[in-house]
Design a protein that fits this description.
The complex is a heterodimer of chains A (about 100) and B (about 170). Chain A contains three helices and no strands. Chain A is an all-alpha fold and about 100 residues long. In chain A, helix 1 runs antiparallel to helix 2 and helix 2 packs antiparallel against helix 3. The radius of gyration of chain A is 17 Å and the shape is elongated. Chain B is globular, with a radius of gyration of 21 Å. Chain B is mainly α and about 170 residues long. In chain B, helix 2 runs antiparallel to helix 3. Chain B folds into two domains: about 80 residues, NADH-ubiquinone/plastoquinone oxidoreductase chain 6, subunit NuoJ (Four Helix Bundle (Hemerythrin (Met), subunit A), Up-down Bundle), CATH 1.20.120.1200; about 45 residues. The chains are: A mainly alpha (about 100), B mainly alpha (about 170). Chains A and B meet through helix 1, helix 2 and helix 3 of A and helix 1, helix 2, helix 3, helix 4 and helix 5 of B.
């Protein structure tokens, strides 16, 4: 392992910011969820890198990463189900047009 | 520059390029496929970090389940949005600026962490990381409670997803 820890952290920061840009700039609700997935992956890279470099005998980093996997799967399942439901009723997946609760 | 560093750099470029394509490609199906590439790159990173179990789970769960779910939903809702032209907001430069600012801040913060340039040689002798992770997840001294809460969350989310997505029978 001759890779400095900072390389992983900077890569994860860049991935997080790209995901953030996607979430904020996309119109389509599915594309927004794609951005959220990128952000979750960036966080996971950080968790695993800190596990490997600081305390590999303690499994905290990997255990948290596993829980993030489970939460990501739950988030995608519910999010996509909501999108399909909205699409059936209103024939759109554009976040701007889903404005029933806007006042 | 060693072999590992070269692998890291190639993987990093792959991840960042595919992530940029995920957030910029107008065609959503292509964006979902680029997401698969980015997730695969992250799996390679886990392998370089010697987190073997997570590398496999990344491929099986993220690419095998989540990305495929995205592709299904893109195909179920596709017709309307392909023709609508621009996929990004007109004021897309505000998020871009925000992202760059946050990136600059994070990089400054990361470089100020003590010991951030450290490199590791080998895992501690006799550490089987898959075994250790498995026992940490079910041991009462470690993470059994968060693990169970996560599984209940997953169950509730799946039941909720089925309920939300089914057609009304009226």
């Amino acid at each position: 392992m001759s890779i400095p820890l900072s390389w992983y952290l900077i890569l994860a920061a860049a991935l997080f910011c790209i995901g953030l840009y996607g979430v904020l700039s996309r119109k389509n609700a599915i594309a927004i969820l794609l951005g959220v997935e990128l952000m979750l992956n960036a966080v996971n890279i950080n968790l695993v890198a800190f596990w490997r470099y600081f305390n590999p005998a303690q499994m905290s980093g990997q255990a948290f990463a596993v829980i993030v996997f489970a939460v990501a799967a739950a988030e995608v399942a519910v999010g996509l189900a909501l999108i399909i439901s909205v699409y059936r009723r209103r024939k759109t997946v554009l976040a701007d047009e889903i404005d029933l609760m806007k006042w | 520059m060693t072999g590992e560093q070269i692998i890291f750099l190639i993987t990093g470029v792959l991840i960042l390029v595919s992530a940029l394509l995920v957030v910029t490609t107008p065609k959503l199906l292509h964006a979902a496929l680029w997401l698969v590439a980015a997730l695969f790159g992250v799996a390679v990173l886990y392998a370089t970090l010697q987190a073997n179990f997570l590398a496999v789970v990344q491929v099986v769960v993220y690419i095998g389940a989540i990305a495929i779910l995205f592709i299904f939903v893109v195909m179920l809702t596709r017709r309307e949005l392909m023709e609508k032209g621009r996929q990004t907001r007109s004021n897309w430069w505000i998020p871009a600026l925000l992202g760059l600012l946050i990136l600059a801040g994070l990089v400054l913060l990361i470089l100020s962490i003590p010991g951030v340039g450290r490199t590791v040689t080998v895992l501690p002798a006799g550490l089987d990381s898959v075994f250790a992770l498995g026992s940490a997840l079910v041991s009462p001294d470690a993470y059994v409670l968060p693990f169970e809460v996560a599984s209940i969350l997953l169950l509730a989310a799946l039941v909720g997803a089925v309920y939300v997505a089914t057609l009304d029978k009226k």
